[in-house]
Amino acid sequence: MPADVGSPESADDLAVSLQIENLRSARFKSGRIPQSDVLRRALPAIRARIAGIWGERDAFSGTHIDECRRVLASVQGALDLRVIEGAGHWVPYEAADQVTTALFDLLARGSGPLAVPK
């Protein structure tokens, strides 16, 4: 089962094939990027609304979703972070209907003024 999916049922033949092809064609190896502070340091420069959709069982952040939420909210208090139960890193593949609903909801909220903490 690819480590990026949240449950064995999601690791169908297509998911495995896509994962193999993604690994083959990757232009760089992500290595330690998920554990580094590269993104944390870049966040203060973001002036767009920050929102996120995560899988509860995400291989990179699943056990750290609360920490991710705190870090993102420290930069932008109006953060809207959705967690899809049972899904992994491939949340759009595993829970397409839920992700679509969440995306439409996030987009419907518009891009009003940002609440950026001082």
Structure description:
- It is a single chain.
- With 118 residues, the chain is mostly helical.
- It has a single domain, classed as Rossmann fold (3-Layer(aba) Sandwich), CATH 3.40.50.
- It contains five helices and two strands.
- The protein has a two-stranded parallel sheet with strand order 1-2.
- It is globular.
Give descriptors for this structure.
118 residues; mainly alpha; Rossmann fold; two-stranded parallel ribbon; 2 strands; 39% helix; 8% strand
Spell out the blueprint of helices and strands.
Elements: H1 13-25, H2 38-42, E1 51-55, H3 65-75, E2 80-84, H4 91-94, H5 96-108
Parallel strand pairs: 1-2
Integer average pLDDT: 79
Please identify which CATH superfamily we are dealing with: Alpha/Beta hydrolase fold, catalytic domain
Output the radius of gyration.
Answer: 16 Å
Sequence of secondary-structure elements? HHEHEHH
* Poorly predicted sequence stretches spanning 5 or more consecutive residues: none
Number of domains: 1
According to CATH, what is the class? Alpha Beta
Distance between the termini: 43 Å
The total count of strands amounts to: 2
SSE class: mainly alpha
| Spatial arrangement of strands, main beta sheet | 1-2
Summarize the structure.
It contains 5 helices and 2 strands, in the order H-H-E-H-E-H-H. With 118 residues, it is mainly alpha-helical.
